[in-house]
């Protein structure tokens, strides 16, 4: 409560910086301009390319959309991206504890903040997000082999200061004890110095009988215009979070499956099999400093330094299938890990001519240091859960769990890598409506990636990219084709013996992916509406595959083929009417793997559902009695998902589902009240990746927003 009061009263201390009341109109206009500019900056290419000029598929989700949807978490925001599906909630463990998503058939985590590496063992807070870019395909050329996935990447763009006073105060309450208070305030300090603060307090219980998350988030940012040519930016984000995670049900991967339906899981839909005493903490700090120097009219230099630290402490637990069609054993561990990231990047962008051909160019240098430190305990069994009887033999007090873990082995393990990279990309316009992109990156990784030896590991990878764009109707219709390469310097993973003992950090060789994509884009209704359709084909080699004999084990050398189609449509076809929708179909198959893995010829569990559909529309009445009344409606539909799919043990399938959401809001002067209903039909639905994870039931939320 103290934090809520602090957030809500903060504007009183800052309002003294406000300008005269007659500047409010200018403030609103200025913010609209900023939003539009952000939407078209295309950070993914690191150069000023428009939607039609970019030879690649991407979705951009602005804060306008998640304000309409009364979103309170990053998962709700990302459900607006075509083909993107969350597989796992955050587990809070070190290195890999963040949320996992799947796109174009490959699992990954959101690890980019303003184009820089940023790791999080928990979940992202949305209070400081201006927009989210979901870039499709393997993007190794501009982002390297540490933060990408072969299906794509998620780049979170934070809010930046602007030159006038303004902001918002927001409070949301709702089902499952939801309380969220946030503030966004911007003020000029002087003619050259501008300050913006975003902060939020969030607390919500699980829809199950136990489990919760509570967090405090603060993100100050500064812009200093030293001169007409030099600008300095400083951004800080800190999130303090404590969560009681609901453990996931892991299906047994070593013997034939004993579950053949969802019946028992549906009967236990609201059972958490945990307690609110067993919590984990995930403090995360991000600091980014950037110097922008305008060398000439068409040449800009950007130097960015980013520091990221995330920690895990507390308890981790999971429920492991005992292969009798009923019972799961709980394995529990104490967490004590830390990830430190230092990322330094320099980009030089410019425009020049070669003869009569216009060129846009970016050259960059990138240094990334990653240090992992882990002192987690071994996993110890603590109780048996029966789905049939809905019982739990484990005593779930902190004292009882600590007694169980007294004899658990702990050993300190570390791994550190450094990656040195250089890349360049050039777009040549041979005609006003015909352009060719050519890009190349080289990465050199060195460091101690294994905890078993002090021997240094050295890896070098090259990543090319080609893209062709032809506009048969200038600025309205484009067709494009691309060849993308992606490589992943795999993070060392925490592995153990089959019984959960002897935990250590194990290294792996880089994976490689190549994508070919063709598609078409259109600007409709004078740019108010954009549409895109594409076909892609991705081949991955040296793929890391899960080890059937060990839940914390892996084998390497697999090959995977993924191909599919995507269609997207977004924009504002009429004043007051917004729409964002998309459909995706993905075919995914393991073409090479060890026979004993049971993966060969199957669709990998990480691939997610083959078909997805997302739709959201919102209309605000522009005149008459109901002026400023807004109505919104959304649909998210996913086909069935094989969370276990092995030729050796069988198939377990989660059924398809369709979730509908609705919202209504009304604005009066500077205040807006919004009512949101999620999961209108109260559908029981699940997600997973070798796991079965129940998702939220029907929930209602009320948002009250005041614009300063």
TrEMBL record:
PROSITE patterns: TONB_DEPENDENT_REC_3. Coiled coil: none annotated. GO terms for biological process: siderophore transport. InterPro entries: Beta-barrel_TonB (IPR000531), Beta-barrel_TonB_sf (IPR036942), Plug_dom (IPR012910), Plug_dom_sf (IPR037066), TonB-dep_rcpt-like (IPR039426), TonB_sidphr_rcpt (IPR010105). One of its GO terms (molecular function) is signaling receptor activity. Residues 53-145 form the TonB-dependent receptor plug domain. It is a multi-pass membrane protein. Residues 275-680 form the TonB-dependent receptor-like beta-barrel domain. Keywords: Cell outer membrane, Ion transport, Iron, Iron transport, Membrane, Receptor, Signal, TonB box, Transmembrane, Transmembrane beta strand, Transport. CDD domains: ligand_gated_channel. One of its GO terms (cellular component) is cell outer membrane. It is found in: Cell outer membrane. PANTHER family: FERRICHROME IRON RECEPTOR-RELATED, FERRICHROME OUTER MEMBRANE TRANSPORTER_PHAGE RECEPTOR. Belongs to the TonB-dependent receptor family. This is Iron complex outermembrane recepter protein. It comes from Myroides marinus.
